[in-house]
Design a protein that fits this description.
9 strands
């Protein structure tokens, strides 16, 4: 796997250690803007310590921050009400409301993380992010299960590898689950997107491989 995609990555950086031969990782998370992102901004959902905790976790795993770049400098203007625009321009500044790309590198392993923070794949897709999604040949699902709109870009180039972690439920339990990538994984369309499946123990990092999603579910 040359490049692994992980939507909803949070601070789960140790997964890079589980795949030491992979040199490129693309991580995406709506935090710190919000863990429950929408087309409006709700201040209590802003995770003000997310950035610092993320960088600290990356440093712990040997990654240093190489570059920080806003990829949409005006996005906040679409989110804020007029009262919020006035308040935040005068009283305080929220530094990571706009979609921002962090580039981190591990000098020892040669691995690179391209981490899109405050980025929602339904609202903040850019040409650069779309290309990163398309170029990834594996998808990590750990904790958070992405919306099935991801398939519009991730599934374009050849079948890929599905990587499911043990801390995640892969069953369709309610209507909300039907809007996620699980909807495809549980039917015959899965082979159009994935031709190999990995199950990873979240605590130990042990990896088990399968040739079908059904076999992975039976292991779990």
């Amino acid at each position: 796997m040359n490049q692994i995609l992980y939507v909803g990555a949070g601070n789960h950086i140790d997964c890079v250690n589980h795949f030491p031969n992979t040199k490129e990782f693309v991580f995406i998370d709506t935090q710190p803007r919000s863990e429950f992102d929408s087309t409006t901004f709700y201040r209590p959902f802003y995770r003000k310590f997310f950035f610092e905790e993320l960088i600290e976790e990356c440093n712990y795993h040997g990654f240093r921050l190489l570059d920080t770049r806003e990829i949409d400098k005006t996005y906040h203007s679409h989110l804020f009400t007029w009262a919020q625009r006035l308040y935040y321009s005068v009283c305080m500044r929220l530094p990571y409301v706009n979609p921002t790309l962090l580039t981190l590198i591990n000098d020892r392993t040669g691995q690179t993380i391209r981490y899109y923070i405050s980025t929602n794949i339904e609202y903040n897709l850019t040409e650069e992010l779309t290309q990163d999604i398309m170029d990834s040949d594996a998808l990590i699902v750990s904790g958070y299960v992405p919306h099935k709109s991801l398939y519009r870009y991730f599934g374009i180039n050849r079948p890929k590898t599905f990587i499911g972690y043990s801390n995640t439920s892969f069953e369709i339990l309610d209507r909300e689950d039907e809007d996620t990538i699980l909807d495809v994984l549980h039917n015959d369309e899965s082979h159009d997107y994935f031709d190999f499946y990995c199950y990873v123990d979240y605590n130990t990092g042990n990896i088990y491989t399968y040739h079908s999603f059904k076999d992975l579910l039976e292991h779990k």
